[in-house]
Amino acid sequence: MPRLTVLATTDVHGTVLNWDYYRDRPWSGGEEAGLAHLASVVERIRAERGPETVILVDNGDTIQGNPLCSFFASQDPAVRTSSHPLAAAFNVMGYDAVNIGNHEFNYGLGFLQDFARQLDAPLLGANVIDAVSGLPVFPAFTSVVRRLGGRQIRIGVLGLTTPGAMIWDRQQLEGLVEITDMVKAAAHWVPRLREEFLCDAVIVLCHAGIGQTTYATNADAPAENPAREIASQVPGIDAMVIGHTHRDEPEQWVTCEATGQPVLLTQPKAHAAGLTEVTIDAEPEGDSWRIRALGAVPHYSPGEQPAPQVTDAVSEAHAATRSYVNQQVATSPRELSTADARWRATGVIDFIQWVQATTVAEALAGGEYQDLPVISITAPTSRTAIIPQGAVCIRDLAGIYVFDNTLAAVLLTGAEIRDHLEHAARYYADLPRGQCFDPETMTSVERGGQTIWDYQYDIAWGIDYEIHLHEPVGRRIRNLCHPGGAPVADDERFAVALNHYRRSGAGDYPRVSTAPVLYNDMVDIRQLLIDWVATRGFPAQGKANWHLIFDGMIL
C-alpha cells in the first residue's frame, strides 16, 4: 500500500544553527539543536522514501526567539541586503508549507508580509482576517500534489494560529487584522478543502496546543489552545501538527465525535531540537483515495550532522549576529546571576526593574501622573544567564531578558497590586509546615493542569512584601509596604511599569489588562537595558525588597 510521509517542525524560534548566541558557543552534551541538523534528517528520509512521497511543513513561531532574529529585525529595511535567515533556511530545505505563529506578529504586520514574500513555501493563516475586507490576509491553505504508486494525490494543508496574538500584540494588529476562533475557522475550511478543492487528504497546521488559556479569562479573544476541540469537532481531518505550548509529544489521538474515527495529533520538540515523522496510508479507491494515519515518531537533533547547504545559507547572518552581540558596552562592578532569581531577590532582576521604573518615571515627569509612586514588575526569563564582573557584552544583557517585549505602564491601586502579587504567588507549591522549601520542585508548579512557567511569575520592585508559603493561594502576600515601611493602602494609586505581554493580561492577570495606560512608547526593553548601561552604567545594589517566608523564617 502506498504511504505518504509528513515531516513537521514547530516553534523553531530562530534556531537555524546549533549556536548559543548568549554564550557565543555551540550547544553540546545532548542539547544540540537547529534546522541545519534536522535538514540531515529530512534529506535521509527523502532519499529512503523518495521525494515524491514526502511533505515538509512548519507550524509557526519561526522568526522570533534568539539574537539572530532580533538582530535581523532591528536592521533598517532600507539597507537590509539579504533575505531573512529563517526564510533562507526554509527555502534550501524545501518546505512545502509554513504556518503563522503568534510570535510572527512581534515585529509588525509589514515585517511578516516581507518574510512571507521571501519564502518559497506559502505562509498560511486561515483565521488571520483583514479587519476591513473580512478576507484572509494570508493564504488559508495550500494544495500539495504528490505521486504515490504512479497516481496523483492532492493533500490540502490548512494553517491556523492562536487568537492570543490579538491580546499579546494588540498594538501591532488592532485595526489591521482580526484573528478569529480556530475551531470555527477549521469547520469552515476543512469541508471546502474536501469538496470544493478536491483534496484527497487534509493536514491541519494548528499553532495551538491542548490546554487552558493563559490570558485573562475576561479577555475578548477565543480560546488559546483548542487543538483537542478542533480534532474532536471538525470531521475530515487526517492529521494535525500542533504547537505553541512547547511540549514534546510526537503522537496523540483524539476521537472525532461526528465520525468516531481517531485523529492523529503530533507535536515536535521546540527550538528545532526535533521533528516528527507522520506516516499515512493512502489506498486507491476508484478515482480517489482511502486515507489512514498510522502514527508518528520523533527524530531529534543530537547525533545528526549539520547540512552544509543550511549553514551556508545563513553564514553571513550568523557572522553578523555574533559580531553584534559580542560588542562590549559596559563594565560591571560585580557578577549578576539569574540562577536564584525565581525564589529570592537578586541584583540582576533589580537591574531590570530599576531601568523599567526609571524610564517610566522620566516619561511621566511634568505630566498629570508625575507624583505617583512608580513600581516595576517583571518575571525571571532565564535560570542560567550571567552578567560577568568586568567587561559586559550585548549578549550578556540579551541573556537576562530573552523576549522581544516593549515597555508600558498602567495605573493600579494598592488593592490591585496585592491581587496581582497573590496571583503571581501561585507559582510556588503549597508548603506544609515542617517541610523545607526546595526551589527545584516547588517553583513553576502545575495548577489546574497548567504549568505556571517562570515567565508567568511576576516580581515587584519599588514596594516591599513577603510571600508566606504556608498560607493558601490567595492569602500569601503579607506586609505590603513602601520602602520606608508605611503600609500600602488599598486606595493608593501607583504607576506600574511592565512589559506589553503582561499588560495584555497574559498569565491570566486580569487587573492589568483593563487598567488605564499611562505610558506605551513601544520601546524595546532589551534595548533599554543595553542603552542604559552603555550611558549610565549599572545602578548600585539595593536591599532585598521581597522574601519568601516559611515556618516564620526568611528564606
Topology:
Layout lengths: L2 E7 L25 H15 L4 E5 L8 H8 L10 H9 L3 E3 L9 H10 L4 E2 L3 E3 L10 E8 L2 E11 L3 H4 L1 H4 L3 E3 L2 H14 L5 E7 L19 H7 L5 E4 L6 E7 L6 E6 L6 E12 L2 E13 L7 H6 L1 H11 L2 E5 L3 E2 L9 H18 L9 E5 L7 E2 L2 E4 H7 L6 E7 H11 L21 E2 L2 E2 L7 E3 L2 E5 L8 E5 L11 E7 H4 L6 H4 L3 E3 L5 H11 L10 E5 L2 E2 L1
Parallel strand pairs: 1-2, 2-3, 3-4, 7-9, 9-10, 10-12, 17-26, 24-28
Antiparallel strand pairs: 1-13, 5-8, 6-7, 11-12, 13-14, 15-19, 16-18, 17-23, 20-26, 20-27, 21-22, 24-25, 28-29
Helix pairs in contact: 2-10, 7-8, 11-16
Structure description:
This protein is an alpha/beta fold and 555 residues long. Helices cover 26% and strands 27% of the residues. It has 16 helices and 29 strands. It has a 6-stranded mixed sheet with strand order 4-3-2-1-13-14, covered by helices on one side. A 6-stranded mixed sheet has the order 6-7-9-10-12-11, covered by helices on one side. The chain has a 5-stranded mixed sheet with strand order 23-17-26-20-27. α2 crosses α10, α7 packs across α8 and α11 packs across α16. The termini are far apart. The model has no long low-confidence stretch (mean pLDDT 94).
What structural keywords apply?
alpha/beta, 6-stranded mixed β-sheet, 29 strands
Shape: globular
Percent of residues in beta strands: 25-35%
- Which quaternary structure do these chains form? single chain
Question: Largest sheet, described in full?
Answer: 6 strands, mixed
Walk across the major sheet and give the strand order.
4-3-2-1-13-14
What is the residue-averaged pLDDT? 94
Distance between the termini: 64 Å
Radius of gyration: 24 Å
Say how many strands there are: 29
Unreliable stretches covering 5 or more consecutive residues = none
Structural class from helices and strands?
Answer: alpha/beta
| Helix share, percent | 25-40%
Number of helices: 16
